Structure formats: C-alpha cells, structure tokens
User: What shape does this take?
Amino acid sequence: MCGFGGYFGSIRDAEALLARMIATIAHRGPDEQGTFVAADAGLGHARLSVIGIGDGQQPMSDVSGNLTIAFNGEIFNYLELREGLIAKGRRFRTSSDTEVILHLYDEMGEDCLSLLNGDFALAIWDHRRRRMVLARDRMGVRPLFYTNRDGVLYFASEIKALLQVPGVSADIDPIALDQIFTLWAPIAPRTAFRNIHELEPASVMIATQGQVTVKRYWHLDYPRRDAPSKLTNEDDAAEELQALLADAVRLRMRADVPVGSYLSGGLDSSLVSALAAGMTPLQLQTFSVTFDSAEHDESAFQTEMASALGARHRTIACQAGDIAGVFPEVIRFAERPILRTAPAPLYQLSGLVRQAGLKVVLTGEGADEVFAGYDIFREARVRRFCGRQPASRMRPNLFRRLYPYLPGLQQQSVEYLAAFFGAGNTALDDLLFSHRPRFKTTAAAKIFFSGDLRATLKGYDAAEELVSRLPQAFPLWHPLHQAQYLESSFLLPGYILSSQGDRMAMAHGIEGRFPYLDHRLVEFAARLPPEMKLKGLVEKHILRKVARHLLPSAIRERSKQPYRAPEARSFVGAGELDYISDCLSEASITAGGLFNAKAVAKLHEKCRTQPASGFRDNAAFVGILSTQLWQKIFTGQEASAARAA
Assistant: This one.
C-alpha cells in the first residue's frame, strides 16, 4: 500500500511540485519516497513496504526505460502471473508485484488489467506512445483523483495532494453536497471538490496530447430474473463458495510482513479470521472496537470468537467524547462531508493496529453487499410483501423483526411502521424501490440547507441522477439483485470502502484487505439464485452454510447487527469541545453560506436536550458539522497555513 501523485503535460518546477504533493500523503507510505520526471510527465510515490520490501521502490521503470509506474495497492495473484511471464522468457530484477504489472503492460497494454486480482490504483507513463495510463481496481478499494489545469492532467491518491497544484482551489461542489445529503456519497466521478474528479472503479483512463478517454474494463452483472440458474444445488454451491473464499483469504495472506484481522464479532469478519487462523504459522492477531453503549457494543461476541481462534486479541474502547475528539482528523482524511460517525472508531482501530506494529489487516467488508446481508435487502422484501396487500395490519409487524437492536422501533404502532417504511407507497416497478425509504429519510436533513444553496440546486434530484447511471439491463434483474447492485456499485466504493475503509486505515499507514471483494467471488455470488442469499428473512444464508463447521453456533446463527457508532450525542452535553460550538455558531454557519443558521441553532439545542433524536436529526447534525469542518480544513485558515508551509 502506498500513495502516489503525478502529472501529464508540461510544467515548471516539477520536482518541487511532486515533493509537495507526496508530502501531503506521506501517511499513506511512511517507509520511503521517490520521484520520476520526464519531459512531459512526472510521478511521485510514498511507499508502505509490504511485498518486495528490499527491492520494490517506486516509481519503478522497466529495463528499457520506456515504462515507468507508480502503484498503490497489491496484486494478490502476482506470483502466478510472474511464473507465467518467466515461462515466456521474461526476466525480473525484483521480487515485487509492481514489476509484474510492468511486464504485463509491456505485453498487453491496458488489457492486462483483466488479469490482475487485486486492490489497486496505478499510473503508467508509456514513453514510447507518449501517453499516461491511469486505472483502478474493479470494486473501487483504492482511490484515484484527477483534475485538469492549463492543459495539464494532475492525479493523486488523495485530493489534498492535488491542492498543492498552483491554481487548484478547494471549493465545495453544491451538487456533490446534495448527493451526500441524499445518497451518503457523491456519484463518481464527482467529488466534494468542484472541478476535482474521481476515476471510477473498474475504469482505465488513457491520456495523450490533446485527448483523454475513460473506459470500463469490468462490469458487475447479474442474470435476467427469468433466466434458469446453473447453480441449483445448494450444497454444491456452498462447497464452491468455501473454496473460493478460502483461496481469496490465502492470496490476501501473502505479504513479507505479518497479517492481522479485524474482528467485529459478526459472521463476516469471524469467517475470514477463522480461515486466516488456519493459514498462518504464527498466532493470528485480531483487533476490535468496543463501545460503552450496549446498543453498539459487540465485545462479548468478539471475545468468544477470539478465544475460539486462539488469537492474540486487542481492543480499543470508543468512549464518550472519543468520536468528537478525533472527528476533525476523520474529516481531514475522508476529504468529504459525511452523515455518520462510523468512520471515527475505525480511525481509532487502525491506530491500534499501527501501535501493535502491523501494516496489514484482513476485513469482512463486502460480504453484506455480495451476499445480501444488509437490513435494507430484507426491508425491501417486506415492503414488497406489504405492497401486494397494503390494507394488511399484520404484515407491517414484520418490520419489528428486522430491527431488534432498535428498541424505540419496537414500541411503535402498526400504522407508524407502515408509514415510516413506506409500505405500499412506492410503485413495485420503481428502479430504486429498495432504497427509496433510505434516500427519503436521509434527504429530509436538507431542510437545513440555506436559501442560497436551495436556489443554486434549483430542484436538482440526486436520486434521479442515480437512475440515469444504471445499466441498461438493470430492469431485467431480480429485485434483490437490483438492490445489491445499488449497494455494491455506489455506496460500497463511495462510502464504505472510502470514508470508512481506505481513508481511515491509511491515515495510520495500514493496508486493509477484503477477501469478499475478490472479483472471482463477486462474480460467483452474482450468479447465485436470490433465495440462496436471502432465504425468507434470513440474510447471507449460503455464507452461514459455509460457516457451519468453522464458527461457534452463537456467532454463526446470530442476526446481523450492522456496524454503527453513537451519532449526535457524541458531540453534545458536558465537556462539549470548543470546535463544535465554533463550527455551529451563527457566524460560522452564515459565513459558510450552506445552511440556515437559525435552524442549525435549534437543531444544536435539540440534540443537547434530547439525546435520543431520530435518524434525520442525527444525520443532519453530523452532516452539518462535518461540512463546516470540511470548509474550515480545506478552504479556511488551516488550508492557507498548509499551503504556506
């Protein structure tokens, strides 16, 4: 894992610019740095050495000097690819996966991307063809951003590096903010920064003089709902899945340094940890977050699973005030406003891994998207069930079964449940049927937008833009697969893998690895019949079957408890930190121009006096505070000081 930046075009003081860019993302690669400058191109690199520690320095050029690469991530099947290349007569100077990419590109050009099993972002300067090639992994694990200035293409692993380019400014994109306050994340290639873009997952950009093209080299696809499945035997499917998952874990255990594992206490991370424990000659090291509040804490399950594995287990307690204490740093690394506090404990957790002396951890992220584990999938099934008999008073009671961890919901009436979840209110053929309640509830926080921001948006609808991005075959898929696509293609790369994943881990120089996002496993799961993933209201059915001989029954059979963290109450009350009242003051809100100062003041007071505020108020509070912090960090005095340094 690493960070890199670079440019394509003619600029002055290239070495100095690259040095500034890499200095801002040195946390991604604290082990060493390097630069490469040619006539019309330059690359800079900050390295976290995991594979080929002694000889994998970057930027790396081939023997001819015609190809130079800066690379962030890992190619997990590099040994197999290397053997194939050696059989063709290729000679290697290093033991790194980076050199494998150079040889593959030399043979196949950008078509080599289809052979890579990994999490990566890369830039290759192709001197012979005078072109710069940028690419990202299929699922969007590793980030890559770019902008154009005076005819020059600039790119980097994080946006803060691009802000070092003369003339590039940090201005909020109002459309992106509206998308965040509806969908939880901007729709790529849009980012929170106006005129700074994100290369979409599974995409390759080819820049030549006067032309830039972007194309996708992989697509997440599902079968037509009426197509007969070839995977009809559940036992056979579970056996194949177990083999794929075990191989995905095996590949991700490859490193020249020890590999640990996050352990939430749920099915996903426990299964990955169990497989990893059987593959390491050393005692597996596991890491967890605990909470003071019973509503969020899973420590009993974490302890049970760690004991079953014989792991060396470490925990970090996220106590009252901790989230508020680290939140400014969370926004600094996330580089965007967020509506949830969940990234903050993960920021703390990656710090714990760094303190333990590790650089690499496995995680269970991706299983919920790939195997239909989220409540939103079950909720959509119940809503469809209710929609077929909207007058039923029994069916809305099913919503209580979906959310046993939300005590307030258990006390609500049938009428409230039906209204809250929109049972029967959304057309069954709506392409966004599964997500309409979430989008509607989240978008309610936009009531706090200022009049000027509303005028700028002029009725813009983020959900409808999302519809315009759906693939042509989307209406032909099963409703569960439609919902899975929305999660996997938008929320997963836009928020889970970004704000909660790469950015929080790399803030401490930690590389997260995601076995469930191995593209072979993702493609296999997409072909599974929906009932093997969501059987009735039992989520991840096929994954539970795989786990039957690997996990304790208490872990294997427990209902999904989504990872959450305390929201608005983390910031208010006794000991409220000064930056919070400063960011939410009438003067700061008015100066920012994005929110209604009087409405925000009322919300702040409400959260102080009513700590059990609902989803809308929690999302609004966190969203407003994070947006104000974003402005302060990237456009205010802090930003000016950083540029002057």
The chain has a mean pLDDT of 92.
